[in-house]
Write a structure and sequence with these properties.
By secondary structure, this protein is mainly alpha-helical. It has helices spanning about 30, 35-40, 50-55, 60-85, 90-105, 110-125, 130-150, and strands at about 10, 25.
Length: about 150
Amino acid sequence: MAGASDILLLVGVAPTAASGFGTVVWAPRVFGLDDTEVDKVSSLVFTKEKVLETFMDDDELFTESVEMFLDNVQVRLKNLGQAVADRNVEVIMAEAHTIKGMMGYFSDGSPYEAAKKLEFMGREKNLDGVDGALAELVDKLGQLNEVLRGWLA
């Protein structure tokens, strides 16, 4: 059985000693994913080792932070969804910014970029395509959340 650090498989961009991150996906050998499923979750998160370094290799702090993120991001996402429905640009900008900041410890890939896009739409008061942008964020956050839950298992 694979250990917790074996859950992710680096693809495309190898980690460097300095950065410790690359493009990552769930390892097909661990989760039985085919190539099309692997593509869906690429560019989601830093490696678990890189995230642990951020928390000074403190497993308890790491676990608490992941759990807090998983709990709080759902509230923020609900608020963002309501703001999009109401076309409230100020709340869209604020909630997307908060979500982006919350996930900054775990990802600067596609979930982060999806939140950044919504934040920019709110800031620019340009809501063309905002429903699709929200759907993309919901999808990417769902994938990120699955990876993070896997780290806690």
